[in-house]
Predict the structure.
Amino acid sequence: MDKESDDVSEASDTPDLLISVATEVEAAVIANELQRCGIEAVAAGGYTSGFKAEAPGAVQIYVKHVDADLARRTLDRIRNENADIDWSQVDVGEAE
């Protein structure tokens, strides 16, 4: 493999920030759905979200650079599919 091929391969595996969300739960839902669609996704920053470290933060979802456009389109589709849900009517169980 030549140097140019190595550079292209490394660039395609470089992580791209897809989105930042407020909670680990939201990040897990998005990352799981992306993975279900065949897109490798990783959530990072969970320990600083929700004040676990007593500091506000966000959870970032990263995808491979090569998958970034597909991941953005998939995220848009996920949002559109779930836009009609009336979350005030969803039973999420008892608070812990």
User: Anything to note?
Assistant: Strands lie at 15-21, 41-44, 59-64.
